[in-house]
Specification:
This protein is of the alpha/beta class and about 170 residues long. The chain is built from six helices and eleven strands.
Length: about 170
């Protein structure tokens, strides 16, 4: 499946889970999407929990959601840092409200909960977040990937192939 012409922004903050950021970034680019890495500050270097570096292309405050087709939020400890930034939360909420693809893996469900977009929605996450997701009003399922409307969630790095196939399918209109 190709998604040439689609634009996605991928959120980043320090302590991101390396595979959960790089795998979707590379896979979406391979499929033809333009992926913009967005952090609290554009041009800043962010480090994974293992010390891998990535530079944000843009700051959250500079992104116009209407110019994109979706957002991907990687896990790790980064989502806990992201949700302390109102501009980062607003991007996720705005993407959801505009019907864009909103994809979150592992601990990234914290961002969906903080954005207030999972009440009544079927989701998954890393198993230790089950209570957090249920307390935010979600219907939690233990499955490799769950798609409910424009929200796509996944549990852990081992589920990345399923997660990326679902994101690419959603972006291609399937």
């Amino acid at each position: 499946m190709e998604i040439k012409g689609k634009r996605v922004f991928l959120l980043v903050e320090d302590r991101y889970q390396v595979l959960e950021l790089w795998y979707p970034l590379i896979r979406l680019r391979e499929a033809g999407a333009t992926v913009t890495v967005v952090g609290p500050e554009g041009g800043r270097v962010y480090k994974s929990g293992n010390g891998y570096e990535i530079t944000a292309d843009a700051s959250a405050a500079d992104i116009r959601v209407q110019e994109y087709d979706g957002v991907v939020v990687p896990g790790g400890y980064a989502p806990d840092l992201m949700r302390r930034n109102p501009a980062m939360i607003a991007l996720v909420r705005d993407a959801y409200n505009q019907g864009k693809v909103v994809a979150a893996i592992c601990h990234a469900g914290w961002m969906l909960a903080s954005a207030g977009i999972i009440r009544g929605r079927k989701v998954t996450s890393f198993y230790s977040m089950k209570d957090d997701m249920i307390n935010a009003g979600a219907i939690w399922l233990d499955e490799p990937v769950v798609r409910d409307g424009c929200i796509i969630t996944s549990r852990k790095p081992e589920d990345l192939p399923f997660f990326c196939v679902e994101i690419i399918g959603a972006l291609s209109g399937k």
